[in-house]
Amino acid sequence: MSDASIDITTKSAKPAELEPKEASFGDYVLLLKPRVMSLVVFTAFVGIIAAPEAQSLFISFCAVLFIAIGAGASGALNMWYDADIDRVMKRTASRPVPSGRVSAQEAFQIGLALSVMSVVFLGLATNWVAAGLLAFTIFFYVVIYTMWLKRATPQNIVIGGAAGAFPPMVGWAAVTGDFSPASMLMFGLIFMWTPPHFWALALFMKSDYHKADVPMLTVTHGRVATRRHIWIYTVLLAPVALGIGVTQIGGPLYMAAAVVLNLIFLKGAWDIRARSEDVAEADGYATEKKFFRFSLYYLFLHFCAILGDIALRAAGLSLGGW
Amino acid sequence: MAIREQSDMHRRRLSRNIGVGLSLVAFCVIVFGMTVAKIREGSKMEAFDHQPRVSITPAQEGQSGGTQQ
Predict the structure, then answer these.
(1) Mean pLDDT value of segment A206-225
(2) From CA A33, how far away is CA A27, in angstroms rounded?
(3) A22 pLDDT tier (thresholds 50, 70, 90)
(4) Residue A2 has what pLDDT?
(5) What is the average per-residue pLDDT within A136-154?
(6) Counting CB atoms within 10 angstroms of each CB, which of A269, A310, B31, B40 has the fewest?
(7) Subunit contact B41:A56, Cβ cutoff 8 A
């Protein structure tokens, strides 16, 4: 950033977005969407641990790190491209680019540089199948989702959710060099979980998406249709979640957790489906907010249960024949 | 005249410089660590052509090294 950005007080007539402020290091960290990265780190870690081969601890650490950097890079590219709509939405207006702390050009350069770096170093650290999958994930999120589908179709969340679902597959591939039904089902779990999770958010953050003119399902098909879609996707999610239980990474702990979590999730989705907009508005979208909060635990606990079964097997406590 | 007072701009710039510096140090450590880990993984390979070093490969069952009869 040049020193020209210092004199922001004397040119108050200019909009904030045209006059970048001095960014701190934390602003660059925020550019990489650390909250999204935390989910990526955790699911990629589970993918690596669940893989049926051994890998050096340091190489595994590097794999998780480069997958996280790749996810962060795609987040920076997303902020570069979406600065115009981020500025309009209350939830995203304080992000580094729309608030003017980091310029869009900087976000683009950082995103591109980190994308290349993460893919090359994941390839060098592990294998080129994992690196290729990471490159595809970044391409999918930035080009297919951010540039194309997000502003073009109400199914944006459904297809865009694939980008967030790849990390456990990349982690698995980083160890084994290939894919398996287990890694694909971990992908399927996040992929099918994404639409109900985001549509529940869209139900109670309705003005944001309206203002930004993003064709969310709530905007294009109405709120009744969105409630119905949440129910349908939650029903479709359940067999995928339970399916993991019968693969090599599943076990009794996972199966028990999956049954309980999916019953609660189905109940929540049904409650949302059965509610009218008037009732929801009257109680401040309490059911939708509760469902959204639970959806975060839902995914986290499924992956914790996979780790739990791995720990049980390592301790020789698994049930025979599972 | 020297600027003595610490402004918010200076603090932000300092945090950025420290952050970039630490990131570069972390990057060097990771590249070094990866190099060590990779060399250890390939420790049973010959240096020039990446072929297994037979002399340090554990003998498999049924292969005594002598002529089989």
Answers:
(1) 80
(2) 10
(3) confident
(4) 36
(5) 92
(6) B40
(7) yes
Q: Which fold has domain A21-177?
A: Tetracycline Repressor; domain 2 (1.10.357)
pLDDT bucket at A296, cuts 50 / 70 / 90: very high
List the single best residue of A2, A22, A67 to mutate versus B (max B Cβ within 10 A): A22
Question: B39 pLDDT band (50/70/90 cuts)?
Answer: confident
Q: Determine the distance from the C-alpha atom of residue A150 to the mean position of all C-alpha atoms in its chain, rounded to a whole number.
A: 14
Comparing A138 with B49, the larger pLDDT belongs to: A138
ipTM over the 0.90 cut-off: no
Q: What chain B residue is nearest to A24 in terms of C-alpha separation?
A: B12
Q: Assess whether pLDDT exceeds 80 at residue A182.
A: yes
Per domain, the residue ranges of chain A are 21-177, 180-317
Q: Show Cβ contacts of residue A276 under 8 Å, excluding neighbours closer than 6 positions.
A: none
